[in-house]
Design goal:
Distance between the termini: 31 Å
Strand order of the largest sheet: 1-2
Shape: extended
Number of helices: 4
Largest sheet: 2 strands, antiparallel
Structural class: alpha+beta
Order of helices and strands: EEHHHEEH
Number of strands: 4
Helix content: 40-55%
Radius of gyration: 23 Å
Strand content: 15-25%
């Protein structure tokens, strides 16, 4: 999972053309290898047949991608299919989550002060009181070895 940021700037006068910078960072430090480790360590016995099939396909595609020559059709096809399967896995997880959330009647539980859930969106809404931050700053200044 990666977060890609793209910045464009155009200048007139002394400099001509458009300057584009692209930065990429891993979101939540979860790469494909770590995803597979987590997948293999979790009991997915209650997962849907669709999710199990997609996860198995994903593992096979990663194997083919790693073993293939980077200029071969096998590599290109595996890479393209892998990204499509990742999106399908994400969709299947969301569908399953929403289905069981309703089936278990968890949608009637009220949320707390930290977040608000609307459909498949989660908004973090927790705000730290300024007086608590000031107390922590004072405590950190008095006891720097504890922090």
């Amino acid at each position: 999972m990666k977060n890609v940021k793209r910045n464009e700037s155009t200048s007139f006068g002394g400099k001509s053309g458009t300057e584009v910078t692209i930065s990429e960072e891993t979101a939540l430090n979860l790469n494909r290898d770590e995803f597979l480790k987590i997948l293999n360590s979790v009991n997915i016995g209650l997962a849907s047949k669709e999710l199990l099939t997609l996860l198995s396909m994903y593992e096979v595609l990663i194997y083919h991608e790693q073993k293939a020559d980077k200029s071969s059709d096998r590599f290109l096809e595996s890479t393209i299919m892998k990204v499509d399967i990742e999106n399908a896995i994400r969709n299947e997880i969301i569908i399953g989550y929403l289905y069981y959330h309703k089936k278990l009647k968890l949608d009637t539980i009220t949320t707390n002060k930290f977040y608000k859930i609307t459909g498949d969106k989660i908004e973090f809404k927790y705000e730290v009181d300024e007086s608590l931050k000031e107390k922590l700053r004072e405590d950190m200044a008095k006891n720097p070895n504890e922090y």
